[in-house]
Amino acid sequence: MMTLAPFLTNSAAVALPMPLAPPVITATLPANL
Fold first, then answer.
1. Is 33 helix (H, G, I), strand (E, B) or coil?
2. Measured distance CA(13)–CA(11) in Å, rounded
3. Nearest Cα to 31, choosing from 6, 23, 17?
């Protein structure tokens, strides 16, 4: 359980900003092309 706690908190912290980045990249790339 001690090893799962940091993994869950790190995955949650990384999972929050990541979904925000791809839509911005996918929205700006076609606009630049």
1. coil
2. 5
3. 23
CA distance 24 to 3: 33
pTM value is 0.21
Query: Residue 26 has which token pair?
Result: 């996918």
- Condensed to tens digits (0 to 9), the pLDDT of residues 1-33 reads 555 555 556 555 555 555 555 666 666 656 555
Q: What is 1-33 written as a DSSP string?
A: -TTHHHHHHHHHHHHTTGGGHHHHHHHHHHHH-
User: Token pair for residue 4?
Assistant: 């799962």
